[in-house]
UniProtKB/TrEMBL annotation:
It holds the Pfam family Peptidase_M17. This is Leucyl aminopeptidase. It comes from the Bacteria. Residues 166-467 form the Cytosol aminopeptidase domain. Belongs to the peptidase M17 family. It comes from Algoriphagus antarcticus. One of its GO terms (biological process) is proteolysis. Keywords: Aminopeptidase, Hydrolase, Manganese, Protease. GO terms for molecular function: manganese ion binding; metalloaminopeptidase activity. InterPro entries: Leucine_aapep/pepB, Macro_dom-like, Peptidase_M17_C. SUPFAM superfamilies: Macro domain-like, Zn-dependent exopeptidases. The keyword NAD does not apply.
Length: 475
């Protein structure tokens, strides 16, 4: 898409979009439509409403956002434009923002507008009448002074989120550990960050034994991906780890239902990869080290066994109770490696880790665990601001004993139908080498799911804007 800033005197696009927020909808409309009024019974600006009309040969789309709106709501409302109203759009479109729209709200609107062009029909044959909005001209009218900067941010944010969508939505015969490694290297060259890839031999030399154990059952070679973004004006160093299980059969504890959706088990990796792309693209003044342990958890003669005792980068021995509790094993090595090799001030991991978190929060928010009130509060606030909400659960030490093993230092699953998300977090805590500012985000219920924009479950890129807001709030 090509975004342009325009004035009322030089725009002639066939479709004009007018978003409305606040209580004086009628007055704003009269001004925008040169005295023409719309009956309030047809359109009053109520949230999640829209209305189409033709005026002087021009098509006009009114978008109601209610008396108060937020970034998440406006993004969704604008995503509907291209997702559900493609027939209204031809070669150009104009969006007229009233003074009620801050730069933040305009950014969210433009992000959402671009997301509307995304669909998951990657392998469908293209129809002759299928519209392509690659060269769509989008004219923007607003009184804010930093409009060009806002458009630039929105474009980069939308690009990162779309990558986050794709990484989850593409099938597991495409999204392999090798694919993720190649993706990281390509983005590193494009956006200016360094990338290191450990193959099996290098991972073994580095002591990443838990990571390698999960990979044993797959024909697809694992990749331990490290991304290093550095900024000369950085005053802090953030470490991210994302669970990158490109497909999860459950291993020998094979899943008995829902396996078709397990291409989504790298939702944490998708968030970390896309967030790294965005942070580098925006050139934020921060140092960032991101790690994605990428594996496929499959089944063959070499697959790791329930009751095995395996090693780990941290030096702790792990009794494998359940091979379907594999995500915490690769995260354990990722966290340990990051803390031991990089001096990060804050440490965050993201993972589609447990069904227990979904049982607690449903599909409304992610589960937040932390050993620091400061980072926990900062993430919770960033979540409320971005619309990617996370909420804390306790990390009391009494839960740690649930992970005690008779034969090893720790076991990977307590085997009980209670406190599953909490005990998983306590397992991970054992591998952070007592880092004082760590947070674990269990995003199993929010990284992939049903939405109005797809007929099947699809990726959400949950975590990308949460991390962006978290970082920028501290700059």
């Amino acid at each position: 898409m090509q975004f342009k800033i325009y004035t009322e005197n030089n725009d002639n696009s066939l479709l004009l979009i007018i978003p409305l927020v606040g209580s004086n909808t009628a007055e704003i409309l009269k001004e925008k439509l040169n005295g023409y009024s719309v009956n309030a019974s047809l359109f009053s600006g109520k949230k999640d409403t829209s209305y189409q009309l033709e005026l002087n040969g021009r098509l006009i789309l009114l978008i109601g956002l209610g008396e108060k709106t937020d970034s998440s709501s406006i993004e969704k409302a604008f995503r509907r434009v291209l997702s559900k109203n493609k027939e209204l759009v031809d070669k150009s479109v104009s969006i007229d923002f009233s003074p009620e729209f801050s730069s933040e709200l305009i950014e969210s609107a433009l992000v959402g507008f671009q997301l509307g062009d995304y669909n998951i029909g990657f392998f469908k044959q293209k129809k002759e009448d299928q519209k392509d909005f690659t060269d769509l001209e989008v004219n923007i009218l607003s009184s804010i002074s930093e409009l060009a900067q806002t458009i630039n941010r929105a474009t980069k944010t939308a690009s990162a989120k779309i990558e986050g969508f794709k990484l989850v939505d593409l099938p597991p015969n495409v999204i392999t550990p090798e694919y993720l490694a190649s993706w990281a290297e390509k983005q590193g060259k494009t956006h200016g960050f360094d990338v290191k890839i450990f193959d099996q031999e290098k991972a073994k030399a580095e002591g990443l034994d838990a990571f390698l154990a999960v990979a044993r059952g797959s024909a697809k070679a694992p990749k331990f991906i490290i991304m290093e973004y550095r900024h000369p004006d950085a005053k802090s160093h953030l470490g991210l780890v994302g669970k990158g299980v490109t497909f999860d059969t459950g291993g020998l504890n094979i899943k008995t239902q829902g396996m078709v959706h397990m291409k989504s088990d790298m939702g944490g990796a998708a968030a970390v990869l896309a967030a790294t792309q965005l942070i580098a693209a925006l050139k934020l003044p921060i140092n960032l080290t991101s790690i994605v342990p990428a594996v496929e958890n499959s089944v063959d003669k070499d697959a790791y066994l329930p009751s095995e005792v395996i090693g780990s980068h941290a030096g702790l021995s792990i009794e494998v109770i359940d091979t379907d509790a594999e995500g915490r094993l690769i995260l354990a090595d990722g966290l340990s490696y990051l803390v031991k090799n990089y001096q990060v001030d804050q440490l965050i991991d993201l993972a589609t880790l447990t069904g227990s978190s979904v049982g607690t929060f449903g599909y409304e928010c992610g589960a937040l665990f932390s050993n620091s009130d400061a980072i926990s509060d900062a993430l919770r606030e960033a979540g409320m601001q971005s619309g990617e909400k996370v909420w804390p659960l306790p990390m009391w030490e009494n839960y740690r004993s649930e992970m005690d093993s008779e034969i090893a230092d720790i076991k990977n699953y307590h085997g009980k139908p209670i406190a599953g998300a909490i005990t998983a977090a306590k397992f991970l805590e054992a591998f952070i080498h007592e880092h004082p500012s760590w947070a674990h985000l269990d995003i199993a219920g929010v990284a992939f799911g049903d939405s109005e924009f797809s007929k099947t479950k699809s990726g959400t890129a949950f975590g990308v804007q949460l991390l962006l807001k978290f970082i920028e709030n501290q700059l």
